[in-house]
Structures are given as structure tokens and as C-alpha cells.
Structure prediction request, 1197 residues.
Amino acid sequence: MTLHSFVEITFWISLLAASIRIATPLIFASLGETVVERAGLLNVGVEGMMALGAVSGFLAAFYSANAWIAFLVAIVVGSLAGLIFGLLTVVRGADQIVTGIVLNILALGVASFVYQNAFASANNVPQLHVTTAPLALPWLSNIPWVGRALFAQSPLVYLAYLLVPVFWFLLERTPWGLNTKAVGEHPEAADSLGIDVWRVRLQAIILGGAMAGLGGATIAVAQVGAYVDGMIAGRGFIVLAIVVFGGWNPWRVAFASLFFGAAEALQLRLQISGMGLPNQLLPGLPYLLTIVVVVFVAGRAGYPAAINQPYLRRGLTIMPKLFQKSDG
Amino acid sequence: MNTAALTVGGTDRVREIATAFGLTLLVAALCAVLLAVTGVNPLRAYLEIVRGAFGSPNAIAECLVYATPITLTALSVILCFRCGLWNIGADGQVYIGAIAAVGVGFNTMNLPGALVLPAMLVAGFAAGAAYAAIPAFLRLRFGSSEVIVTIMMNFLAATFAIYLIGGPWASGITPATGPIVSSGVLPIIIPGTRLSAGFIIALLAAAILSRVLSSSVFGFQVRTIGQNINAAKYAGIRVNRTMFLSFAAGGGLAGLAGFGEIAGIYHNLPAGLSPGFGYTGIVVALLAKLNPVRAVVVAFLLGALNVGADSMQRALGVPVSIVAIMEGLLILLILAARLIDRR
Amino acid sequence: MPAFVSNTSEIDVSRSAQWTLSAISVTKRYGSVQANTNVSLDLRAGEVHALLGENGAGKSTIMKILYGMVLPDEGHVEIDGRPLTLLSPRDAIHAGIGMVFQHFMLVPTLTVLENLTLGTHLAGQYMLRKSQARRALTEIARRYRIGINLDRKVSSLSVGEQQRVEILKALVRGARALILDEPTAVLTPAEIADLGVTLRELAAEGHGVVIVTHKLAEVLSISDRVSVMRQGRMIGTWRTQDTNADELVVRMIGRNLDEARLASEHRPGKIVVEMKEVLTRNRRGLRGLDSLSLQISAGEIVGIAGVEGNGQGELAEALTGLCRIDSGDITLNGISIVNRPTAEIIAAGVGHVPEDRHRDGGVLSFSLTENAILVDHRSPSFQRHGFIDRHTAASFTQRLINDFSILCSGPDAEFGDLSGGNQQKLVFARELARSPKLLIAMQPTRGLDVGAIEYVHKRLLEQRTAGMAILLISTELEEVLALSDRVLVLRNGRIAGALARSEATMEAVGELMLGSGRTETDGIAA
Prediction:
């Protein structure tokens, strides 16, 4: 590409297609994290959960030769990781940031360990022969200009398209969504109304873990076709910024993911463009962008009020604030 | 954020040690199962770890070599956490400190020999401090999550290092830069080993931080902010200034780790300088319950674990990632059990 | 019976039904503290029943037991002679008992409609049925003549409106017996009157209402019967019309109100603090102090009276440098302290006993010594060359412990281990030991038992006689009236009026708090 590419429509369409493709795993993980944060949990362990999804998805795909089994396995593994995070932070009241960071360390270690044991004797990086081939949707992909970019993608992309309104519906139109929002804003109030705060939060984090696992598997199985240590490369943390950027709203979060997908796609094109830019600095672009986004989307404001605070009472007697030591 | 649960509490000392011991055994047992499943005799593996770590004076020196940078990153994390800020960026600060140290170490300014090493040290500290000042500033001025920003800056620092190694500072031979001048090398303190004076620097830093936190006015202010930021404001403590200074100082400590690796071990800037020193530093800090002196001991033990695991991998083919699993499991179990000790 | 109310209530829901909810011989201990001893209480359909007692009398405990939040050690709860097993608020709600807490249990970012449907059958099973819920809720609100807007976010409602939502919440769940915990603590006099009307409406519809309170005025104006508790025991129950304020006071505190009036005359010295037209903005960007002016002289206690939320916090923050002052001037002994850093203001001689001793006054996990030097740790008496002199600090703390009779194991004890009263004593001791020129005491006796309250009042009066300028900010009107040489009424961020001691009566102050100039305030007794 050259500078002239920026005025060519084909460039933008190709960029759109790539952006969507790259954004898909981000969308999965971000939708999950949106629900998690709305419930009042800050899951910094998304990166590790994505890595577990990647390795388990890859191994499942490799041994079963079936991509869909792979995704299923990744979802289950991600859910388990989410459950562990939930048990520690919700039930035991452990600090959420610490738990997330440590879970990342553990998860990355487990992923690496499992993979190396599976392929200890292999000399080169095993490649998947099963991938999820692009599937052109019959009538939609014929739309002029954007048809192929939007609708001639891997089926996982269509899944992402589907899940965005599903998650919106879940949060805004179901009782579970209402409970989740209440639990994230004012768990004491929810508790006093008989809502099981712990149960709601655990359900949310299991869902979040499942989505993170799906996202990681998407990268390994549907995109790269291999597993490499460190392949998530910070995307799990970018997800945290995406959720803030998207205002904890599934639609906006999806667009925020697309935005980051576009940044990555653009960066890749610039790298091979021969435009004389320092190739080895370009990969830093998404990270820089994340910082910019985090700074300018008004920091702390907007997080659910009860985020990152353990709720230590359950049902019976409501939290310590209502029970004063010297008051009868 | 409440660091109260993470710090050294007033609870029963004996009970603490017993719990720690018990949990370590539990982790060892769990990992033994893991090893057995992968076809390795766990006892042989653990024996190999111990042998690899303590089997010879050279091995013990290697443990200390590993312990040096993670002590410093742990101190960095301790200082920041105690002040209520999450420094997850120690890794990036190590890289930046290393880059600055190497940059000065090329001595393109032709400083007299005796000044090169001190200049490198100052550069490493200052660069790490400056690099940490950025997320601190963003947090205090805009409320931006320092967790996200510091992690992003980790990736940026690593990317920058790769760029330098592949580009302007390329040596052409190995995936590393060219060497620094000989006057920029830290002396080896145990002949025949890799243990340099960097270790002494780490010990000094731990002693100084311990004293500052427990007895100084600044340390009192840091601790107050970490425990109850409202009370700190009420008491007239300049919260933003203190938080900024402690975060920057934390970055400087991590930068010192980078300096130590350059001046003491590599004498150039290699690719993959930090195998996660920053994150291991967090592990050390947590296990040490945010106490600087304990951190030295914990760093040594973790260093031993890593050195032993390296040896175990060579001998038995067990991936070294088992160490990360052990570390992670141990802390998670401690987190799960912590509430038993909490009042 | 209306279809929208889930008929799982144990209590007969028809309007004219007679039922009685009773607590029988309830005893509850917390460690060595006997919160309730052999307490019996009954609530009948159609009555408003006041439960009166001081802080620490045991009212909250018996209410929590009635609501299933706490299990009694002895005794039980029954309806019409049938015992109830209440293991959680869910059981209580099931039995038709509803509770409105002092701290509202509403989710601020959700609308009234969403808050009311949360956790109820109105929310539906898999899909929210908003229009159905809306119809049902509008019907209930109409029936009880409670005016609310279902689509407003709770965060935009006034305190009185939020309380109405809370009451509706209980009614939606089929509450026949309603418990209101300190309902008037955060209301303006006009809102208190409205509440009284609502409660009578509820009673007329066959509900039974318990209001837990320590305010005599509301008891006399709103209730049909009043039960008095003291030190964990039920003293007795009387028909409100058969008793009066003096009798109730005696029963509440066991003796006649001492009327701790000032011994010495008001002889103010020179002006210590002067605030001129100070304008601030509070945390949410709304107007905090609105051109506020006042003066405090040495040797006097100036009391700030007012309903919570009219600028009390902002006033304390402005004087201590904890908030930005947009315009105006504040001088301390002639020196301007506007927008100076807090450390400077502290050094200039301002002492502050904050309203929330846990949040602002001290660090729970620190030792008593560290809390004792919290404010003064920079001074040369406690530090040298940047390092803290632990020895001096410890002996200083021990002196404070002795002088103020603080019950603890020594200077190394953890602040969080002390009782509320002793914690407050330490905070007081710390501030007084600095001999401040101005002492700001904000809600100094909140959450303290009777003995501690007396102690604090005594020390304040002592210091006033010794020449300290004291600013007393309190929402306890009796406290302000008892201690102040001059009473200033704070309303909407400015001083609505100033009264000398002789003119400061409940009515006069109440009128200024109300602000409409009405002399007749419906529902408020003297």
C-alpha cells in the first residue's frame, strides 16, 4: 500500500473485512466482560482465560479434527476458569485485581505446560488442518461494496453478530439482566430484596469466562491455526479498555472492538507497506491506542458503583454497615 | 482498594507459618499429581529441583542471581501497593531501565571510566521512575486505570526493546545489542559465579525501603494513604504528591533491576531480557505480605525454585512453566484461605 | 384482593381484618453485650406504633429480629398466636412483614419502576414485563395515594420521594406490617408532615406500622401507641394520647433530662474565624455553600443546626481545606486560609473531629499511637530529620489514654479494636491536645451511647470555658440547643438565621429550618 491507498475504496473495504475478522475474538471476550463488570466484578484475568481457551481449543481441534468441538471445549475450560475466579473473589472475598493477575500467571503457565507436554517431541509447531472456512451468506454477501466484507466471513463472525443483540437483550430485557445490574450497582439493596448476590455474580463470571475462552479459541483455531506461548499478546487487557470505551453497552462495546480491530488491521498493512515506517515499532500501536482510549474516556466514571468490592454477606444477615457495634 | 488484607497482619505468627507451610505442601502435592499425569516421577522431579538449586555453590549463586531482579521488582510492587496503587508495570520499567543503562553504557559521551557505572545506575533508576511517572500522572490527573496503562506500557517497552535490538543498536551477531564498555560492568562478588554486586544493591534497597516504610514520615504517609485515603486527606497529607512520588520511586526500583541485569549479567541488551520479572515480583510481594525484608527471603526461595526447575527441565524434560503453576496455585490457595485469618 | 399482590401473606389481607404481630420474650446477646432482654412487643392492624428509645437502647435489634435478619437467642415472633420461623428477610416478606431501612435500599442508576419490580413476581420469569408491571404499580400508588413518577431514575429523586418508593416496595411485596427505621432522620419538616399523612393512610387501609425512632416530636404527632425501650429492655407500652413528652423522656433515659445547660455566661473573646460570602461546589458539581458568612469568637460554641444535606459537610470541608472555595474569604485570626492546603490549615490551629470517625478520623488498622500522631506527624515534636520518634509518640499517646480514660490495652492497641465511644474519645483527645484555636466538631456524638455522649458534651463545654472557639455541627437539634451560645441555622448552603441562646427554641429553629416563614408547621410538635 501507499499513501494513495487511503483514497481507494477497495482499501477501505479490505480494511473493513480484516477489522471485522480481527475484532471477532475481542467482541466475544468483551461481551462477556461487559456482563461481568455490570455485575460488579473486575476480571483482570481475561488474558489468562483467553489463553486457556486458545490452548484447549487448539488441542481439541487437533485431536478431534472438528472445529466445533474445539470451541465447545474452550467454552467449558473458560467457564471453569471463570468459576475459579468467582469462588475466590465472590465467596472468599479475595481482592479482584490480585486474583486476576495471579490467575493470569497461573493460566499462562498451565497453557504453556499443557501444550509443551502434548507436543514435547515435536520439532516444529504443529499446524491445524481444520479451520473454519469463510462462509459466504447467500443473498447478503452480494450487497455492493460491503457485502463480502460483512457477510463472507468465518461462521464465528456471524456468531459474533448474533451475540451482540443477544447480550443486549440479556441485560436489558430479562429479569436476570435487571438483577445483574442491581447487584453491580448496589448489592445490599439487591440482597435486601432476596436476590442472591453471590449466585448472580458467579453466573456472570462463568459466562464471562466462557466468552473469554471462546475468544481465545477463535484466535488459535479460526485465525492462526496454531498455539504459541504469549499469542494472546495483551488482548485480554485491551478488552478491559474496550468495555470502558463501550460504556458497558453491548452494541457500543462491539463497535469499540471493531475500532481496535481496525487499528490492528491498519497496523499490519502499514508493516508490509514498504512505506518506510519502523516496522518493529508498529506492533505497539494497539497498546498505545488502548492507553489513549483509557485516558480520554474519563477514567473511573461510569464503572458500576459496586465494582471491585467483595460482598461478604449472603442472604441472612445483611452487610456490616447496617449492624453498628454500639447501637442496639 | 484495600491493602489491609495483603499486608503483614497482627495475627498469630505461628499459625501463619503453619498455614504457609501447609499450603506449600498442598501445592507440592497437586503439582505432583500433575507431574505424574505427564509421566514424570514427582519425587525425582522435586529432588532434581532441590539438587539443581542447592547442589553446588555455583547453583546457590545462581539462585541469588535470579533473586536479584525479582527482589527489586518486588520492592517496587510493595512500595506502590502499600500506597494504594497497582504497579503491574514493573516488567516494562525493567526494560526501560535496562535500555537506559545500556544506552549510557555504550559511553558515546566518553565519560571517565569511574563514572560510567554510577551513571548507568542513575540512568536506570531515573528511566524507570520516569516511565512509571506516566501512568501515575494519568491516574492522578485523569483517573485512568493504572492497571491497564501499566500493562500496556509493558508491551510498549518490550516492543521498543525489540526495535532497538533489531534496528539502531543491532550488533549483527546475536539477538542482542552491542556490548557496553568494560567500565560499565558490575564486579562479580563470588568468583567463578555470575553473582554480581547487583545483589548487594538489591539487599541495600530492601533495607532502605524497610526503614523508610516503617519509620520515616514519608513512609507513614504512604501507609496511611494505602490504608485509608480519606483519613490521609483529613490529616493534611498531600495525597497526590505522595502517591506520585511512591509510584515513581517504585518505577525507579524496577529500573534498577534492569540496570542490574545489564551491568551484572549480560553487558548488553538481549532479546527476552525479562522472563516476567515484573510479574514474578508481584508474586514475591504478595507472598511476602508486602514486607520488604520478607521479600528478600521469598525472592531467594523463588529464585531457587526457578533455578531448580531449569535443571529439572534439562534432566527430565519437565517444562519450566510448572514453576508458574506452582506460584499461581500457591497464591490462589493463600487467597482462598486468607479469610480464615482475617478478623 | 388485588391480583398484583402475591397472596402468600400469612396475614389476612382484607381491609377490616384484625391481626396482631408480636415478639414474645425476645432475648439477643452479642458477645457480652445484651442487646435485647426479654423484649415483648405487639403491633395491631390499623395502628401506627412508635418504638422509642435512645441510641443503643436495642430498638434496631428487635426490628431486625422481626424482619428475619437476626435470630433471637430466646423468644420468638408470632402472628395471632401462631409462631413464625423467620430465617431470612425472605421469610419475613413471605409473612407479610416489610421493612424500610434508614439507609435506603434503592439502586440509584435504575428507574423507580425497575427498583420496584426487582426481585418480585412483577419482573416475570424470562422476560421483563414492563407494561404489566407499570399498570400494577400505578394501581397500588393510586390506592395509597402515594405520588411517584415511575420512569425517573432514583438518583434524581429527593429523599422524601425515595422514602415513598421504599414504602411502595414493601407494599408491592404484600406487606401488611411495615417497619420504618428512623424514617424522619433525613427528612425536612415538610416531608415529615407528608410522611405522617401517608402513614395514617396506611393505617386506615388496615396496615400496621411501627416507626422506630428517638425523636419525641414524631412520636407524639404520628403514633397511636408508643413503646419505650431502654438499655435492651421494654419499659412499657402506652396509648400516645395518654402520655406526654416529659413522661416519655423519663422512661427513655431513666431520669429527667438534665438540660445540660452552660454554667458560665457567654463572654466571647475576639473573633477567631470569619467567613465572608463563601461559595463552593460540592462533589457532584452542585452548589455547596452559597455565599455563606459567619463568625466565631474565642470562648464560644457556635452551633450549626439544620437538616442533613444542607451544606454541613461542605462547611467543615471549606474550613479545613478539603474542598475548593470558588469565591469568598475565610480568615483565622486575621490570616486568610482560603484554598490553603490542609496541612497548612492544621498547622495554623484548626482542629477537626470529623463526622465519620472510621472513614476520616482514623485508620482502623493502625495502632493508637499512629492514630494519635496522624494529624501532627510532621511537627518537630514527633519527627526528626524525616523519621518518626516512636518513643515520644508512644508516651504522648499514653498521656492521652490516661487523661481521657480511653479503654484499651495500651498505645499499641489497634484502633479498630476499640469501641465507638473510645474511638471518638481518641479522636477528641488528639484534636484537643493540639490546643487548636478553632475546633470543628461534626456530629460528635453520632453512634455513641449515653455515657459517651455526656462525656463529649462535658469536654466541649470545658474547652469553651477555657477560651477555645468551637463550631458544633450536628443534626441532633437537642444537642445543638443544649451546648451552643449562638445557633445558626444552615439551609441550602447559607445561614438562614442566627439566634442567641435565649431565643433558640425548637420552634424558632424549626421555622428557620423550614424556611417558608410559616408559623404553623403541620405534624411537628414542639
About this structure: The beta strands of chain A are 135-136, 152-153. Chain A touches chain B through 50 residues (CB under 8 Å). The mean pLDDT of chain A is 87. The longest helix of chain A spans residues 9-38.
